[in-house]
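Researcher: Sit down with what I've pasted below and flag anything odd:
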Amino acid sequence: MTNARRGGQLLLACLEKMGIERCFGVPGESYLEVLDGLVDSAIEFVNCRHESAAGFAASAAGKLTGQPGICFVTRGPGATNASIGVHDAMQNSSPMILFVGQIATSRIDREAFQELDYRRFFSPLAKWVTQIDKVERIPETLSRAFATALSGRPGPVVIALPEDMLAQETQAEPVSLPSLARAAADPALLAAALDKLLAADRPLIIAGGSGWDTAGQDHLQKFVETHQIPVLGGHRRQDVLDNFSPVYVGDTSVGLLPHTADLIRQADVIWAMNIRFGEVTTADWQLKAVPKMDSFLIHSHAGPEELNKIYQADIAFNADPNLLANQLANQLAQPAAGLAKPHAERLDWLAAARTDHAAASVPPPQDSPVDMGFVMGWLQDNLDKDAILTNGAGNFALWPSKYFRYSKGQRLLGPQSGAMGYGIPAALAASLQYPGRQVICFAGDGDMLMSLAELASIRQSGARVLILILNNASYGTIRMHQETHFPARKSATDLINPDFAAVARACGLFGEQVASTDDFPAAFQRLQASETGGVLELAIATEAIAPLKTLSNLGNKGIKGKAR
């Protein structure tokens, strides 16, 4: 065959033609053909130290860019290690494609070395799971995989690659990105929704989910500010609307604040815009009765399967968030008669919400060597206007979640799945995608130990990440739950940690310990000035597990397991 390519080469040619510039992974012998093809490919392979980190990085890349994050891992243990990234991508609604090296097709169903039935294993975690057995079907499968990952509610796809298939030759040509269908709101339903929303005394929009672009966010902001409608950011989507907007009133992430819960309870019309109704947003589905809430519910979502899934909507429509926001902005040119100006009840409702939000945004003082309340205030004043913040899971994550206001252009990458270890790989992906931007990762000590090896990945890749480790020598969230449910019966939550700053230096990065609040500004400036980025290890008192102690238990009920 004069123009033949082997399967591994064709796969990479398709990815290149689809605009992929980078992938994350851990190399394995099951996909040697792909690794060989990378020698001649323009695609960068970011060598992670653990497959879970590679999966997290790909999931974060998908959330950050809106295009599928790509991950390659080997069969069996490699695939199972990477499954946490697939789960995170599904919960985060992040487009992602995981390629798994597979045993040769002749050995399948013999329980060969590291054999796994990937369809059965990943089917509960992904939007689609498949295996390519014939080399000529690589372009077809990748076209469908990208369309599936990006259409409707975005999410992960898993593709198994038998090693013998990758070595076969074919004259099949690479394929480019497929055209994607995007739904716009039905005009009649949209008109009905607007009539109801703009006539309400206590309207509320909860906006979030994935798939937003800058234009969509701008259109949303224009609409809600014109009509003075309070907006809550969805779970770990505080960055969906400029937090300095006069209508932004908080978020529905873990640690639901009392005033936020009251807003949801008391709203007479709720527009759930591109969000899912998980237990975090709804305080374990206790704020509103299931399936029919007492508020008038408008629910719009890019994925029709999310509509009427838990709560029965009074008006439901399948709509891409950006097309919908554009429709909302366009209607401002022809506002409904008599509703051009917000009425007094709505203005009072918004003013009260803004007052409560402002009061709740003040960080509580900490009886700790390093006071995180001060740290967050300093960071608010000094971080770049396009900074990207990341975090894993644990009570430390409430600092960037509750006590940082995301201006237009700033981004938050956090795991809706509550997975520890997410923050470092997410920061790695963000720094490589936007090398000129400031990337700050918040990590707890337990959280950090789940991705500690990725410090070496950061150094090798040339990424530049500023990592703040809040070291309280414990699994703080679990300790808090123990103190609540089993007072004076502490168990399994103490940690003896390494010298994180020394580990960072051993990896060739900046590393410094910060023992007092007064030392933080100069230490951060030294970290920022370093060529490599690295770690500031902040001394936090074991007992200082606030701000969780200062928050209502609403929103935390049921958030257990690995959210330490």
Remarks:
- The longest strand covers residues 96-102.
- The chain is about 35% helix and 15% strand.
